[in-house]
Amino acid sequence: MLDDCHESFKIIYPAHGFSIFSRKSRETIANPDNCNAVRGLIFPRRNPERATSSKEIVMRAPAPTVLVVGATGRFAGLVVPELIRRNASVRALIRDPENAEKARRLGASEVVTGNLRNPQSLENAVEGVDGVFHIGPAFAPDEACMGVAMVEAAARAGVRKFAFSSVIQPTNTRLENHASKVPVEDALYSTNMEYTILHPANFMQNIAAAWPSVVRDGVFSEPFPKTAKLARVDYRDVAEVAAIALTEARLSYATLEPCADGMHSREEIASMMSEGLGRPLSAGEPTFGE
Length: 290
Known about the structure:
The chain has helices at residues 39-42, 48-51, 76-85, 100-106, 119-126, 143-156, 176-179, 182-189, 205-217, 235-247, 266-277; strands spanning 10-12, 19-21, 65-69, 89-94, 110-113, 131-134, 161-165, 194-198, 202-203, 219-221, 232-233, 255-256, 282-284. It is α/β, with parallel strands linked by helices. It is globular.
C-alpha cells in the first residue's frame, strides 16, 4: 500500500566526511480503519528493488556472521532481514527459548539462548561471529551494565564490527533512558572494534503502537510537550543503516542520527490523524510515570 511512500535513503560521502538524508515523508493518512493508517503520516516503506540491488550492496566480507541481540524484538527484528539481504548469516540471541522459531522465520540461521545479565552466556553467544548488533532493553535499570557487558564480551572474542542502536541526544542525562546509553558508547571507544553508533530520532513505530488507544480514546499522548516539534524515524531505515554498517566498511567509526524529513508537534500529528479518521482528536501530555 505504501511501498512508494518514500524515496530511498541516500548516503553521500563527500571528501571530508559523510551525511545521511532520510527518505521524504508523505503526510497523508492511508486506510484509517486500522493501525497501519498512521503510516500515512510519516512512515516510509523501503523500495525492495533497491534493498536487494547487487550493484548497490558491496559486501565487506563473504557471508559474515552477525549476532543480533534481541532478534525477535520489535526493533532488532527489523535488522535481521536487512542483514540477510546483504548476504550475512544471522545468529539470533534470544532470552526465551520459545522465540527460537520466530527468530528462524525472520531469517536467522543460528539461534542461541542467553541473558544480558549472564556474562558466560554472552561469551558463548559471541564466539566466532564477525559483528554484533546491540539494542538495549529501554528503561531497564541496569541497561548500561548489560550493554557494557555485551561490548566487553565482543571485544574479548575478537569481534570486528559492532553496531549500537543508542538514542538521539544521549548526553541529555536528565532522561534515564538516554543516560544509560553513554557508558555503552564509552565502552566502545575503548575497544579495537570497528564501531558504528546510531542516534535515531523518535521511532515512528511508537506512534503505531499508540494507534489503537488513539482510535479508542480520541487522544494521542506522548510524555513531552505537545507543542514541541520532534524529528522522527521509521526504524526500518535505522535497521538498513545498521546492516550496511555491519556488512561494509564505509560506516566504520561513524556516529549517525537517522531521521526523516520534517518535524511535527504532537498537536500537528493529532490534527492529521483527526483528518484521516474524520472525527476530532486531541493531543495529550502525560508524564513518564503515567
